[in-house]
Specification:
Number of strands: 9
Shape: globular
Number of helices: 3
Structural class: mainly beta
Strand order of the largest sheet: 6-1-2-9-8-7
Strand content: 35-45%
Order of helices and strands: EEEEEEEHEEHH
Helix content: 10-25%
Distance between the termini: 58 Å
Length: 136
């Protein structure tokens, strides 16, 4: 059976994952000094009071080849998932939640949400030179 390597994050709100091939590194959030990390589950609500004790970031490469940090508030596990366990979302749900690419069913029947990186990473636009902003 074909397997897909995934990085799973046990967030207090729900377990989510990204394809390991897109992950550049995992590091403490305090050491990340670029743009603020993206909370991929922000649409589900804020982190519960006390949140997770572990605050790390999963640094991924965006489509424009920039590094983007995803907030990892919980335990992290890296492992292979059987490709048959990656299930597409029903059409109605897929249209309403573009941030979620699929549902992954673990061997213990628990579920993870596979995050669609293109939907949660917004590229930072290049600064517009003042001459262009004035219509030159």
């Amino acid at each position: 059976m074909a397997a897909v390597s995934m990085v799973h994050i046990q967030d207090p709100r729900v377990r989510w994952c990204v394809r390991a091939a897109r992950v550049l590194r995992i590091m403490p959030a305090a050491e990340w000094n670029a743009a603020p990390p993206v909370d991929v589950l922000a649409a589900l609500g804020p982190m519960p009071r006390g949140g997770a004790r572990t605050r790390r970031v999963v640094v991924v490469e965006a489509a424009d080849r920039r590094e983007t940090a995803l907030l990892a508030a919980g335990a992290i596990d890296v492992g292979d998932v059987d490709a048959a366990a990656v299930l597409p979302l029903p059409e109605l749900l897929a249209g309403a939640t573009p941030q979620i690419a699929a549902i992954i069913v673990a061997p213990d029947a628990s579920l993870s949400l596979l995050v669609e990186l293109a939907a949660v990473i917004t590229p930072v636009p290049w600064p517009v030179p003042a001459a262009c902003a004035r219509g030159w």
